[in-house]
Amino acid sequence: MGKIKLAIAGVGNCASSLAQGIEYYKHVDAKDCIGLMHYEINGYRPGNIEVVAAFDVDRRKVGKDLSEAVFAEPNCTSVFYRVPYCAVEVKMGPVLDGVAPHMHKYPENKTFVVADDEPCDVLKQLEDSGAEILVNYMPVGSEQATMFYAKAALEAGVAFVNGMPVFIASDPEWGRSFEERKLPVVGDDVKSQFGATIVHRTLAKLLNDRGCKLDRTYQLNTGGNTDFLNMLNRERLESKRISKTEAVQSVLDEPLMPDDIHIGPSDYVPWQHDNKICFLRMEGRIFGDIPIDLELRLSVEDSPNSGGSTIDAIRVCKLARDRGIAGPLIEIST
Questions:
Q1: 298: domain range?
Q2: Left if phi > 0, otherwise alpha if psi is -120 to 50, otherwise beta: which for 36?
C-alpha cells in the first residue's frame, strides 16, 4: 500500500505518542502486535503513515525536526520508541486562543512558552507538503485555533481528524462544507483505547441492557500534563464536558437529568505527569428496586491511550478518501 501523508497541528503529548507508535509498529508483526485494535485496515498498517508537516507555537519545538520536537518540554508522556530523524521541520502556527492566559503563571517545564517567530502560511505548508490528512491536537477550549486549522484543511483539500472537543465533524454546517469539498472529516474529540469515558459508557450500556436503572453517576479525572493544566480554566471546558457527557447519555434509554450526571476533568496534579486517574461512581437499582452502587479507579497513561484510537481514525480517513467517501465519518467518530 502507498503512504498516508499526515500533517499534525499541535506537537504535544498526543502527537508524541502517535509519532512513536507509527515507528514502533513498523517493526512488529501481526502475531506479536499488542496495543492495536486493528493491525491492518484494508491493507493500511501504521507504518504506512508518514508525517509530512507539523505545526506548533512553543519555542522549544518550532524550527526543530519532528523527531526532536516530540520529546521537547513540556511533553511528559512515556518514551517507548525513539523517533528517527524525519526531515520534517515544525513550523510556527498561529497562537489565536491556543494558550490559556493562566498558563503563563506556571514553570516553563510545565507550560507552553510561545515562540517569537511569525506564523507560517499554514495553507501553503499543507499544499507544499502533499498532506492528505490533518490531525488537530489543539488544547481543549481552542475553538478559534481548531476552526482555523479546519478551514485550512478545507482550502488545501486535506481531510481532517479532529482530536479535540470543538464541534467540527458533529456540526452540520462544517460537515456539509467537507462533503462539498469531497473530503472526509472525523471527530470530535478522542475516545481513548481503554479510557475513562469508554469504560463509563460501556458500564452504563451494560446496566441499561441488563434492565437496571442508573440513577446517578460521576466521573472525576485528574492528571499532570499540559492538557489538565490548560483545563484549570473552567471556561475552556464546556465542549469537553458536553462531549464526554453525551458519550454516556447516548447509550441510556432515558437520559439522566443534568444534576444526576457529572463527567469531566477535575484537577491538575503536577506529579502525575501524563498519568490520568479516573474515579468513577454509579448508583442504580436492580431487581426488586434494590439499590446497587459501583466505584472504580482507573489509572492510564493518557497520551498513548489516545494513540490507539487515532492511529485507526487516520487509516479509516485515508480509506474513505480512496473510496470517494466525503463528509463526517459517523462510525469511526462514535
A1: 196-302
A2: beta
Residues 6+ apart with CB under 8 A from 68: none
| Phi–psi pair at 131, nearest 5 degrees | -60, 140
Give residues with Cβ within 8 angstroms of 154, minimum separation 6. 160, 177, 178, 181, 183
Element (H, E) at 300: strand 290-301
Query: How many helices and strands, by DSSP H and E, does the chain display?
Result: 10, 11
CA distance 174 to 100: 25
What distance lies between CA 27 and its chain's CA centroid?
24
The reply to whether 204 and 315 lie within a common domain is no
Measured between alpha carbons, how far is 3 from 39 in angstroms, rounded to an integer?
Answer: 16
Domain at 211, CATH number: 3.30.360.10
Domain match, 33 and 116 both: yes
Q: Does 152 share its domain with 33?
A: yes
Cα–Cα distance between 74 and 53 in angstroms, integer?
A: 20
Residue 266 CB contacts under 8 Å (≥ 6 apart), including other chains: 220, 221, 222
Based on the fold, state whether residues 114 and 232 are members of the same structural domain: no
Shared domain for 209 and 265, answered yes or no, is yes
pTM of structure: 0.94
Q: Which SS3 state, helix, strand or coil, does residue 185 take?
A: strand
* Mean pLDDT, contiguous 10-residue spans, the chain (334 residues): 95 98 94 92 96 98 98 98 97 97 96 98 98 97 96 98 93 97 93 91 96 97 96 85 88 95 92 97 98 98 95 97 96 79
Rounded to 5 degrees, φ, ψ at 269 are -120, 100
Tally of domains in the chain: 2
SS3 of 147, please? helix
